[in-house]
Specification:
Elements: E1 2-5, E2 12-15, E3 23-25, H1 28-34, E4 39-45, E5 49-53, E6 58-61, E7 67-72, E8 78-83, E9 86-93, E10 107-109, E11 125-126
Parallel strand pairs: 3-10, 10-11
Antiparallel strand pairs: 1-2, 2-5, 3-4, 4-9, 6-7, 7-8, 8-9
The chain binds zinc ion (ZN) (2 copies).
C-alpha cells in the first residue's frame, strides 16, 4: 500500500499493490506540465488507484484529446493522467508519493526531446520516443 498527496494536502490517494515501474518521460509536454526536466510516472492498474480525499478539487487538463491530466486545482500539483484508450491504467506522478519505494528509475522515454541542460546519469534503458 502506498499513499500520496498534492503539495497543499487537499488531494490524497492510495495505491494498493506494488509500484513496479518508474518511467521518466522527457518529452516537452511533460516538461511543461511539471516545470521540470522530466515527468516521473508509474503505470498503475486503475483498480489499484483510489482518490481518498479531494475528488472535487481534482481538475482535468486536456491538452491532447483522450488524455486527462489530473491536477490539484488549489496548489497545481500534477497527480495522475489517464487515457481513454487505456481505461484500465493510470499514470501516477510519483513525486507526489508520501510513502517510500524501493525501486529506481527503470526506463527513460522520449529522450530524443529531452532538455539539453539535463544529462541522464544512470543505466536505465532509454527510448528515443515511446518504450517498446
Ligand atoms: Zn493541492
Ligand atoms: Zn511525456
Amino acid at each position: 500500500m502506498h499513499k500520496g498527496s498534492c503539495l497543499c494536502g487537499a488531494v490524497a490517494y492510495e495505491i494498493s499493490g506494488d509500484i513496479k515501474q518508474i518511467i521518466y518521460c522527457h518529452c516537452q509536454r511533460c516538461r511543461k506540465a511539471n516545470g521540470s526536466a522530466f515527468n516521473a510516472v508509474s503505470p498503475i492498474p486503475a483498480a489499484q488507484f483510489k482518490i481518498v480525499k479531494g475528488q472535487d478539487t481534482l481538475k482535468a487538463h486536456v491538452y491532447e484529446a483522450g488524455v486527462d491530466r489530473m491536477f490539484c486545482s488549489d496548489c497545481g500539483s500534477p497527480i495522475f493522467s489517464k487515457r481513454k484508450a487505456m481505461p484500465d491504467m493510470v499514470r501516477v506522478r510519483i513525486g507526489t508519493l508520501d510513502t517510500p519505494i524501493d525501486k529506481k528509475v527503470s526506463t527513460h522515454i522520449f529522450v530524443g526531446s529531452k532538455a539539453e541542460w539535463y544529462d541522464i546519469c544512470n543505466n536505465a534503458q532509454q527510448f528515443i520516443e515511446r518504450a517498446g
